[in-house]
Amino acid sequence: MTETILATHGITKSFGALKASNDISIDLRPGEIHAIIGPNGAGKSTLIGQICGSLAPDAGRVELMGQDVTGLSTDQRARAGLGRTFQISALAMEDTVLENAILGAMGASGRSWRFWSAALGDRSLRTRAEAALERVGLAESMTKRCADLSHGQRRQLEVAVALTLAPKAFVMDEPMAGLGAEGSKNLTGFLDSLRQEAPILLVEHDMDAVFALADRISVLVYGEVIATGSVDQIRSDPRVREAYLGESA
Amino acid sequence: MSRETLFNAALLLGLIAVPAWAVMMDEPFTITLATRAVILALAAAGLNIALGIGGLVSLGHAVFFGIGGYAMGILAHHAQSYTPLMEWPFLIEGTKFMPVIWLLAVVVSAVAAFLIGLMSLRTTGAYFIMITLAFGQMFYYFAISWSTYGGEDGMSIYIRNDFPGLNTLVPIQFYGLCLAILVVVLIFTARLRRSPFGLALNAARQVPARVEAVGMDPMRLKLVAFVISGVITGLAGALFADLNRFVSPTMFSWQFSGEIMILVILGGVGRLFGPVAGAVTFVALEHFLGGITEFWHIFLGLILLAVVLFARGGITGLVAGKEATHD
């Protein structure tokens, strides 16, 4: 029954007269990358908000590992195994790279209620954080302040913080945003191997990356999923070409 | 050693050397001034945890200061008039014993901070400031109308309360006690800042969305910080009342909330010794400028303006530069 790790069932959300999500049902299966694409204003961010818990759907539900998490808050969902990255880097800019990663390790291990011992002195937190930083290639920059990082490094740190959670599923909101060709290629390679650890729901504008990575693609237009399928199916779907790829394909 | 560490050490040394000098020169008034500075620093150190690390601009910290003051006033008042605090359902008598007074100050401040925090943390920005201010005014007017305990006039306590092993009537001994408490609180704050909780709280101020996304509730972190903060300021209130041997509703006033905040900003928001630098400067200005002109607050205002405009790290920032990256 746990064929799906993460699923939405008939999620609907309106802002006034605007239906930002209209009966959206998508799922994420073990080992896959499921990409969500769609033109600007299609409702991708609204969808992510409802999956991660910052927005409550008007109707429908969200399931993680077969459990209904619709009523859970963002932090509860994170503890239940949802690891997200933000479209615009949400990092503690005054803190160091290592501290940001430790923050993730703390949340995952529930060690935030310690008032006396030093966070950086906690072996297990530190091991976890350093391992994640090493994997994304930030091992050299651990003591740098986040504010001093390049944009690309911040994107890497976003992913590293999600890694520290060892989540059941990743939800990544445009991880390639603002990356150059080189950075985009590197991250694509990394995400490619990451899917074995936990499946990834990927919202992305970079079509090269999407076509290279996605096992399945869902196309969101005006708050509705108009098609779901493999890369080839989506590429050849006339509705998709008309609605979205028309200009670029 | 960083410049900030040196600056902090110099401040601490001054807090030991100046009163020591005053004892030798037989200048008890200087000791009283130093005690005032140390207690105000303690009150500000409390606010510094909420404001400096948690980013909670509380304009209601006088609530806790006043609670501490009235905890002392009420217990000591009953002790000196030999009347019980209450007889039913069980007998509670007043006391002149400082540790018990502090315990009451701390417990009531914690409960008040928890309830106030629970309600005001739903808001942010200007609304948070306004709600904390409103709670402050509620307590202020309650104290004014509480005629059992002096109402508007407050209460005088004739003899300073006792601490085992000390003669608190000797100024330097009471000063030593206050300084010891301040040092303990500063050590605790230093540890807190580097602890997992401190790291999480610091991040909750900068990017609450991130903190949520890694599985922590920023509201709860801030609430706990608010309680810790209120408890420390409450303890300072009890000491302040003992210094003056007088308690009045002024301790609850919003002007006093503002004053604590000025101390923090003057000394350097979020800096470990910021409250100390701020309080020492404030008391010195109050004394020296206050001796020259009644309108010394104008100069305080100008200095504050200069600090806010040109030295965002306050006096600490001015002397020690920007805060170094921890580790």
Automatic annotation (TrEMBL), chain A:
Residues 6-247 form the ABC transporter domain. Keywords: ATP-binding, Nucleotide-binding, Transport. The keyword Signal does not apply. PROSITE patterns: ABC_TRANSPORTER_2 (PS50893). It holds the Pfam family BCA_ABC_TP_C. This is Amino acid/amide ABC transporter ATP-binding protein 1 (HAAT family). CDD domains: ABC_Mj1267_LivG_branched. SUPFAM superfamilies: P-loop containing nucleoside triphosphate hydrolases (SSF52540). One of its GO terms (cellular component) is plasma membrane. It comes from Tritonibacter scottomollicae (Epibacterium scottomollicae). InterPro entries: AAA+_ATPase (IPR003593), ABC_AA/LPS_Transport (IPR051120), ABC_transporter-like_ATP-bd (IPR003439), BCA_ABC_TP_C (IPR032823), P-loop_NTPase (IPR027417). The lineage of its organism: Bacteria, Pseudomonadati, Pseudomonadota, Alphaproteobacteria, Rhodobacterales. GO terms for molecular function: ATP binding; ATP hydrolysis activity.
TrEMBL record, chain B:
It comes from the Bacteria. One of its GO terms (cellular component) is plasma membrane. GO terms for molecular function: branched-chain amino acid transmembrane transporter activity. Pfam families: BPD_transp_2. It is a multi-pass membrane protein. The keyword Transmembrane applies. The chain crosses the membrane at residues 38-57, 62-80, 100-119, 126-149, 169-190, 223-240, 260-285, 297-320. CDD domains: TM_PBP1_LivM_like. It is found in: Cell membrane. Its main location: membrane. Keywords: Cell membrane, Membrane, Transmembrane, Transmembrane helix. This is Amino acid/amide ABC transporter membrane protein 2 (HAAT family). It comes from Tritonibacter scottomollicae.
